[in-house]
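Data availability (excerpt). The following record was deposited with the supplementary files.
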Amino acid sequence: MHARALTATFALALFASPLAGQAPPQETTSITHVTVIDVATGRKLADQTVVLQGERILSVSAADPAAAPQGRVIDAHGGFLIPGLWDMHVHIQDLEDLPLYIANGVTGVRLMFGARDTRELRAKLSTAPAGPEVIFGSAIVDGDPPVWPGSIIVNKPEEARRTVDNIKASGADFVKIYNGIPRDAYFALADEAHKQNIPFVGHLPYQVRASEASDAGQRSIEHLDGIAIACSKKEQSLIKELRPGRYLEKMNLYVEALHSFDGAQCQTLFAQFKKNGTWQVPTLAVHRSMGWMNDSHFTSDPRLAYMSGDVRYRWQPENDFRFRRWTPAEFELHRSLFAADKQMVGIMFRAGVPLLAGTDAMNPFCFPGFSLHDELALLVESGLTPLAALQAATIRPAEFLARAEDFGVIAAGKRADMVLLAADPLADIHNTTQIQAVWLQGKYFDRAALDTLLANAKHRSGKGKLH
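Predicted structure:
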């Protein structure tokens, strides 16, 4: 998705009504009679009392009938408490989309197409009255010609090194790379990123093998990019046929790769990913959307009511340059590739490859907040356990970001980012949608407050666009 810069002041009045139950800073709150899901172990700690003060968790302990709860008391009535969820692959086009993450229990996101001036972008996003923590990527770094306007073009190694230096100086949290980066420029970028101690993540450049990217230190590979080809007996010859901007040709090469799949080669690659800490972000939600965009039932999703008219227009396949020329046969082909993607994710999981949940939100029919729950369900359909899927959106993002001391589990000292569910997500991953309340850095959004966020999204002014 391409980035947009603010051209109008966000209408704060849209969210002027007070949010019910929001706790003042440093107020002590006790959540009682709740089952805490320990996402590190899968244990269900029944009848717990969780005490918060300000933005931190003070304690998690079994209920003590002889001790009065501290401060404000919220009786969870046997609900299930999980850590706040993270979507590790999003795009942000509109400030008014940010509250949708909170309404869906998503307390953190990784922005995968930032801006050349990260500090300016941070300031703009900070004006949203309710939104998740954002980890800021750079503007996309691509070859020439780039796929997306606003990308940083690199053709030579010295340009790649200079680009990394500029990105680090701009305040971005990581470098986002794309398919068209030339091979020598890619390895120069990797070397400079290592020297500058800034992660680089993103697509697998067409001229680079997945095993080479792993050894070069690419921190995450998005969308299963190039994985089928990397598992093919014809890997080297297929790589030579990849061309930027020719997505339909790439689909056909993936089909050829699947027909020449080498299980032993794949397992060797996945063992390398595990050893090197090369994380995978499958973004199954966007793969599914691309296969079903010609299905009127799929494209009449009721969650469209929360998106602006401009977004609904752009999401129609005839209005997207990537899909407007697709035939029914090509959509059908993508559906079969989606099924293969799910099988690949299952193989990765069983091989111990580290996985993160991400949606590619703001691509067509990938909804801010909502689609993370779709992604969790698709991960389970692919072979992950409900616990593993939940981990991919909680403790694993904390580990990936080297923030495990701060969030990812519910424990004393951690940040109070939590979601109260009415039903057990380990029994059925779909229960992550049964949200009763959300805590964002200790701020409490009860069900009424979350409903207010959703209602406001249906009446958005559209003035908070990022162009």
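Summary of structural features: Residues 1-21 have pLDDT under 50 and may be disordered.
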